[in-house]
Design brief:
By secondary structure, this protein is α/β, with parallel strands linked by helices. The protein has ten helices and 21 strands.
Length: about 550
Amino acid sequence: MLLSALAALLVAPAAGAATQARQADNLVASIGVNTHIGYTDTPYDDFPTVRQRLQELGIRYIRDHISQRRPDVYSRMRQLAEDGIYLDVIAGDPLQRWNIGTIDEQLNLIQNELSTSVVSIEGPNEYDLQGDSNWVAVLRDYTQRLWEGTQARPSLAWLPVVGPSIVSRAGMATVGDLSAWVDYGNTHTYLSGAMPETESIWSGELSAAARNSAAKPVQVTETGYHNGVNSTAGHRGVSEKAAGIYMPRLFLENFKRGIARSYSYELMDQRNDPAKTDIEAAFGLLRNDFSKKPAATAIERLIGLLSDEGGKFIPTDLAYSLEGAPATTRQLLLQKRDGSFYLVLWNGVSVWNANLREDEDPADAPVTVALEQPISSAAVYVPNASATATATAAKPTDIEIDLTEQVTVIELTPPATAPEPEPKPTPLPEPEPAPEPEPAPTPEPAPQPPPPAPEPVPTPPAPAPTPPRGGSTPTPIPLPPRAPSAPSPTPSAEQPAPAGAAPPGAAAPPAPTATGDRPAAVGPVNRSHRPRKKARHRKHRRGGQATPPVKHRAF
């Protein structure tokens, strides 16, 4: 009984307690996706359709490599920037394979061809798997030279540098501290069929990443699920239905963890694999024919619901509590600039049996959201089920929902509040009398969100701001002050991991200090990023999802 009571305290605010919201658009800005725009022998070569799907999804950040002498790819990147879709560019390969070029050639290319497209520069991709016996020394040297080359170019020095991705935790420990030469740490975290809330995986991954980036924030530049459920590989997949439930939860969980940005691997299946045995043909949000998998549909609806581009603001508090919430309840309170709150709830339980390779349908949990301040209207959304509200109410005091494994978003609109009194203006000299002057119209006050609590709890720094759409230069992720670049000593594998909390001013809330080991079932996948030529809402019942043939390839 005591354990149950403690668990309930962890998942629900105490009665009468106010919870401070976070900016809704910061969640949207933390979502990215990997692409292979230069793969001309895959569906990626149908760029008009790729561009259309990215626009529909609402994802603003992609991750991709670049090669020398590919004006077709540079043109496509610039067109995406015109749509407000910006690039984390993987800058180089220490072995200079695949026409990637030297560091100077890569940076010159970014400067001359992609100045309006690039939002961050990333080190080499999974170099610990590339067969170089001296890879640790080579990667440390390359990381330092990439940083110094970026800082030496005034047109690039404003761009944040993301550290190299290293697959194994042991490899991260061996490489050691790179924090003098990076603004963000990096990790590739795949869950191998486990649910996104599996803390033992994330704590171990973030702890390992902190060995490279110290207290600096982290980006997860590859994550997600494949649908090759009949594969015998150690990296296990999930069904399209399960991935459709897990992927929105994955982005939400990573935002809650303080990860600055997470890039799903990848946008599209590159080839057709009806047998579902090829895991490298099944990572896409889209199928090989550009049709949307359930994950793409759910993410598109979630982004559409929460997108709120504009300047920064200070979110306010909402007083509410959850009644009947199980210990597995997950929640996130967001707010838009117009004052509307968005309470995101889901039950963090498994929907896929990796051993039996079959979907699970966990029981629903009746939960009441008790509103402890006035709300003028409420609407309940389930992005997996519908783009429109599944329930609405005026002036609710309680909202009953079936808490399910799918994400539920409750939009709560507070009543319009009177504007704060304006200070008395400084008297101006009397104007010359005018014949029959007309009194100035009294401006109609704009609705304001409820004022913040007297001493609000500081909100963790926001994730990367969204660059303005329409082709202007993207706004970089705000960074803490950079320390002078100084060589880091080459560490041993036994060096203890530094703390993983991000400093104030980072692009996202601080990444937690973490411990733990990767489960044996989570096997790395080598994707060398190389160019190749009383409102009452009850659950919308989910019928069995037909799984059409999947169609893909690898980094």
